[in-house]
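Hey, sorry to bother you again with one of my protein questions. A protein chain has come my way and I'm curious about its shape. I'm sending you its amino acid sequence along with the backbone structure tokens. I owe you a coffee for this, so here goes:
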Amino acid sequence: MWDRHPIRLSLVHMLPKVADVRGVPLAPLFGRAGLADATPRDCDETSLGGDRVVARGQISTLLFHLARRSGEATIGLDLADAADPMRLGLAGRALFAGRTLRDCFSALHHQMPDLQGGVSVAIEERDGVALWRHRLADSDPEHAQVLNEGIGAFTLRALRAIAGAEAGPVHLRFAHRAKAPATLYEDRLNAGVSFGAGDGIEIRFDARWLDQPNLLFVPSPEGTAANLPPAPVSLGDDALIAMIEALFDSTALTGTLSLVDTARSLGLSPRTLQRRLARLGTSYELQLDSWRHAQARLYLGGSTTPVASVSRALGYGHPAHFVRAFRRWEGRTPLAFRTAARMDR
């Protein structure tokens, strides 16, 4: 089985650091994975090479040999500990963009295609228990052991941080056979861990956590709204516009952009919000259109993010809708704009 599904090399942005700590040279690892031309810089989402896409089977091979050369069967947990969500592009930002844990998972699932293809993710609820399932299509669980353990541990860490459920009971199940005693994993993760069942990763936890407020929720990643008054109704005109734009930034990632959702977040009725905006000579629709236009120019002029990913980041349901809007704004397609921007650099 050879997993040819695309994945961003920046998924393993922490690899150089972890390999260095373990005294494992990277060049032989890249070579074994058919990535002999790769460098540590290619793993960095913030670098010029950070948009590099490879076959997921290559990532699994890379991590498989990292575990063998380091002699650490549980090195996937080290990778998870060293991971920075903000280095995972849109998917990493989306994971913390929701108001509740349920919203956060929904946002992650919505933006997952930007990070990797051929993956199915879902949340199920049964008798008060929530099950987060993650499965890599066309992937051999034994070959992808380190990758799956890293994903499972990273997701568990995010789940606890978002829901504030550090001490609550959790159980992780992996499809591959255990390469080390389960107690090693349980001690590291403070969770029950089992192996050799299912066809991917499963995390079981209290379903009530799904609707817990996101303790890390900040509407604007840059913190532009961090000092705004906590009572939205008292927002002045300038602060109102700033808060609306900050909310666009998070709700677009979750795919829940709407007048009703924005008004609810501000503690206003949709009619009241529209009246306030009308007094300022604008409207919700105009503000959203202006925000999307500005963000589209930033994405297309300063990165190689695919047009479909830009479309999702701006909250469009289909790339064709984004392309039509961009033609209206700029009189040309997103790709034509990007080409011209590169020539002007």
